[in-house]
Amino acid sequence: MLAAERRRAIARAVASRPSVRTEELAAEFGVSGETIRRDLLALDAAGELSRVYGGATPADSVRRRLSEGTFADREHTNVEAKRRIAAAAAGQLEDGLTVSIDVGTTMLELARALPAQWRGRVLTNSLLVAAEVADRPDVELVVSGGAIRAGDLACSGARAAALFSDYYADIAFLASGGIDAKVGLSDYYPAEVDVRKVMLTHSARSVVLADSTKIGVIAPRRVCGLDEIGQLVTDTVLPAAVAAALEPSRVLVAA
């Protein structure tokens, strides 16, 4: 394949994914990593993609979304990545901690990934998370009340916020509708965002779990800036602007 043909193919490949690593492209096109880096540099200069540390993202990497889709659809999207993210996050737990667990499909995977012998307290506004944890004999489960949204079975409103106001968690595990360098963390449901803000401020440390489909996305309701979160656990190379807003020590890429 000629260099020009390869670069056109690389541009198409990058445009179809949230992000791609240099080594993935090298394997896909059967060339060296150095060759791919030169190709990405040329394509970035031509405005056909955005070169980031370790790979590339589409040129228009900021995507605005008004809806996250149904729970049934999201439950079957990027499942393996969500499981890797959940396992990496759960691997940081120590016995005796009080943790808040947010709502959503990745939070459900986190509940499933809690170490079998872990002893601690779980606060949650997700009935699905609660159902996963309820039979754990060494876990004290505290579930918020509030209005319930169908699908995710997420609780929100004053009663849900009150639960997290009454505790100070060691770690708040937070979901995300979008991660953007300027906007920060954003999501879709105003009442749930209000609860998430309480979880954030009533915890010693916050950990946001976000797979590649959330990176570079702006949802309608802002939660907080990236400077306000303790750690981002993801499965992908971050766009340069997002990476610049988060020190390397605050990013964990799940293997």
TrEMBL record:
Residues 3-58 form the HTH deoR-type domain. InterPro entries: Carb_Metab_HTH_regulators, DeoR-like_C, DeoR_HTH, NagB/RpiA_transferase-like, Tscrpt_reg_HTH_DeoR_CS, WH-like_DNA-bd_sf, WH_DNA-bd_sf. GO terms for molecular function: DNA binding; DNA-binding transcription factor activity. Keywords: DNA-binding, Repressor, Transcription, Transcription regulation. Pfam families: DeoRC (PF00455), HTH_DeoR (PF08220). Repressor of the lactose catabolism operon. Galactose-6-phosphate is the inducer. This is Lactose phosphotransferase system repressor.
